[in-house]
Design goal:
Layout (H helix, E strand, L loop, with lengths): L3 E5 L6 H9 L16 E8 L2 E8 L9 H15 L2 E7 L6 H13 L3 E6 L7 H5 L10 E2 L8 H10 L2
Parallel strand pairs: 1-3, 1-4, 4-5, 5-6
Antiparallel strand pairs: 2-3
Helix pairs in contact: 2-3
Bound molecules: guanosine-5'-diphosphate and magnesium ion (MG).
Family: Belongs to the TRAFAC class TrmE-Era-EngA-EngB-Septin-like GTPase superfamily. EngA (Der) GTPase family.
Protein name: GTPase Der
Subunit structure: Associates with the 50S ribosomal subunit.
Length: 162
């Protein structure tokens, strides 16, 4: 059975765009309207000859429970079933209170976490990514899921952990 990599994070940080980037197809639904992806979607993925299962999460936005609780709950379910977690933060926005909730949950999980600072579309935005060192998951990977910047380096390290 291929190892499972779960992509978690708040709505609109670019999780589905990153999935598209990794699987190389326009298959994961990406919408400008937050919350379009439904629950968890699973894909078979491959990088550098290594097969893995990629789990995208999302789609709880307009739930009555409130976004904070829903993000935390979905992240916990996905993280629980994953071998490795990609935690995506919007580097332009920085870590929000919702992100901090996910951080606390991930610390309890004690699984490998790759912190992706997404939307680093150019060099000038790399300092935004560096600020996310403070979350305590080591080096944040500055990535532009949209343009592909930095994703290869992140994936090289990721498959090294599988
Ligand atoms: P999700 O809700 O976390 O799955 O986020 P999506 O993948 O649906 O992306 C939300 C919005 O952010 C879309 O408009 C994407 O085009 C945009 N987006 C995603 N990645 C990037 C990126 O690296 N740079 C920029 N500038 N926009 C991005
Ligand atoms: Mg999505």
């Amino acid at each position: 059975i291929p190892p499972v990599v779960a992509i978690i994070g708040r709505p609109n940080v670019g999780k589905s765009t990153l999935v598209n980037r990794i699987i190389g197809r326009r298959e994961a639904v990406v919408e400008d309207v937050p919350g379009v992806t439904r629950d968890r979607v699973t894909y078979s993925a491959e990088w550098a000859g290594r097969d893995f299962t990629l789990v995208d999460t999302g789609g709880w936005e307009h739930d009555a429970k409130g976004i904070h609780a829903r993000v935390a709950e979905q992240a916990e379910i996905a993280a629980d079933l994953a071998d490795v977690i990609i935690f995506v933060v919007d580097s332009a926005v920085g870590a929000t209170a919702t992100d901090e909730g996910v951080v606390r949950m991930l610390r309890r999980m004690k699984k490998p976490v790759f912190l992706v600072a997404n939307k680093v579309d150019d060099m000038a935005q790399e300092s935004d990514a560096a600020a996310l060192w403070a979350l305590g998951f080591g080096q944040p990977y500055p990535v532009s899921a949209l343009h592909g910047r930095g994703t290869a380096d992140m994936l090289d390290d990721l498959v090294g952990k599988l």
